[in-house]
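Example 9 (inverse folding). The structure is encoded as follows.
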């Protein structure tokens, strides 16, 4: 019987959650059902997902920042099709393939001129792991510093640098020598650098969890401290890179010159996983320091042809369609429009972000009834109110967003950089209506919140993770 993937997908579309319950992550299936995220998406294009009935959903999650250039971009798809049609040799391993050389040339061209060497990997966490190894090998030092609240990935090295108890719980002991410095605290950073044994300080220009940004003077001063004490500065651009923050890279908001950059997510074009480490040649050669160490750090699929083609096409689309400029323009419209809602809705504490990476943080209301409901929700889980907002945005307005992190009253938006004024206006209007619904107590949103509380309490009794 011939294999026909299209026929299989058509015949079994809609079985998604049943299949995952039986064979993949049934805890995730339960969570998605509880929060109303158990949709079946049948098609995707640009800024939108479409369900089996053809209804559109505005995608302001973008696969956690993968789809900077929108979903199923035809230029990137064509590049992959071209590679497949050419029947090129792939992953010979004991060779130097053309496509990986071309992508390295392009990546080096778009990064600062002092960075001239590139290593390809499969994912953001793998890029971070590699950057930490590069830092240790080139400096001969062992300690790595990362900021409180940071997220750098979930494999053991990157998890050790992810200063977030939720992700680390149950997986210890973690990698020794990886230590936390307090967010936005230069005194703490200098005290730890001054010991003289720090290989590198790694930081996200904008923290993914919560969308937190240090004071404007912080990163330039932090970079100077790294130089002073001989440590490398690693800019983790896995989510912030390739136009997400309204600059090609997030560190450019402060004119920084990092020693190592990690990138991934959008480099894939949304088709084939692709990540990169970009660094100084001297640092690179500190790893591949002898002929017998020419593959001492390697990854089987890192330089595969499909990933390289996707990366080349993704960068070209970002440049040709001026997505960096659009990210800055539309992102600012979003921030301004959402911030203007604060005059109508006392629940809004702050709207912050850069480009198309932004967050809306909420605060306790003044109304006695709403204050009591707020406290009841927070007594169970500090992230449930934000989940109420996110679920209502999806259910009532078909806008996909997410809670910015655990135990946070923060909703995070990561729209594709292709959004226009129509999508911005739809988002602002939806937030306005959702926050108006919150003031109706009792009302549907608070009933939903009560159900979330009941589910959370029930799972605590069963000693299972809440997952929301």
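The amino acid assigned to each position is listed next.
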């Amino acid at each position: 019987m011939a294999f026909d993937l299209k026929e299989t997908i058509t015949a079994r579309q809609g079985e998604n959650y049943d299949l995952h319950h039986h064979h993949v992550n049934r805890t995730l299936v339960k969570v998605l059902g509880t929060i109303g995220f158990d949709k079946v998406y049948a098609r995707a294009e640009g800024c939108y997902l479409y369900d089996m009935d053809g209804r559109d959903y505005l995608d302001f999650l973008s696969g956690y920042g993968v789809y900077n250039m929108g979903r199923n971009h035809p230029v990137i798809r064509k590049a992959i099709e071209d590679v497949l049609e050419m029947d090129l040799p792939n992953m010979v391993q004991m060779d130097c393939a053309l496509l990986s050389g071309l992508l390295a040339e392009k990546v080096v061209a778009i990064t600062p001129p002092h960075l001239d060497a590139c290593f390809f990997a499969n994912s953001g966490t793998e890029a971070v792991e590699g950057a930490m190894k590069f830092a240790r090998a080139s400096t001969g030092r062992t300690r790595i510093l990362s900021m409180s609240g940071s997220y750098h990935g979930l494999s053991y090295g990157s998890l050790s640098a992810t200063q977030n108890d939720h992700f680390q719980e149950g997986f210890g002991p973690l990698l020794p020598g990886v230590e936390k410095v307090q967010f936005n605290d230069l005194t703490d950073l200098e005290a730890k650098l001054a010991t003289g044994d720090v290989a590198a300080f790694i930081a996200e220009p904008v923290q993914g969890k919560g969308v937190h940004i240090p004071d404007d003077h912080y990163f330039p001063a932090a970079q100077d401290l790294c130089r002073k004490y001989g440590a490398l500065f690693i800019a983790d651009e896995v989510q912030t890179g390739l136009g997400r923050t309204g600059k090609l890279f997030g560190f450019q908001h402060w004119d920084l010159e990092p020693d190592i950059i990690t990138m991934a997510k959008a480099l894939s074009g949304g088709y084939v996983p692709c990540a990169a480490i970009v660094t100084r040649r001297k640092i690179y050669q500190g790893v591949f320091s002898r002929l017998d160490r020419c593959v001492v750090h390697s990854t089987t699929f890192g330089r595969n042809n499909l990933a390289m083609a996707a990366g080349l096409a993704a960068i070209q689309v970002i440049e040709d369609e001026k997505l960096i400029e659009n990210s800055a323009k539309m992102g600012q419209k979003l921030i301004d429009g959402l911030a203007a809602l604060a005059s109508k809705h006392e629940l809004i504490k702050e709207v912050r972000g850069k480009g198309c990476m932004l967050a809306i943080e909420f605060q306790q209301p003044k109304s006695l009834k709403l204050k009591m409901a707020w406290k009841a929700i927070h007594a169970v889980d500090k992230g449930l109110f934000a989940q109420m907002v996110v679920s209502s945005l999806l259910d009532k307005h078909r806008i996909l967003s997410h809670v910015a992190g655990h135990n946070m009253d923060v909703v995070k938006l990561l729209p594709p950089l292709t959004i226009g004024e129509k999508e911005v206006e739809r988002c602002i209007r939806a937030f306005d209506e959702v926050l108006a619904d919150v003031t109706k107590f009792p009302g549907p949103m608070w009933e939903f919140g009560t159900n979330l509380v009941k589910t959370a309490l029930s799972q605590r009794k069963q000693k299972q993770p809440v997952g929301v």
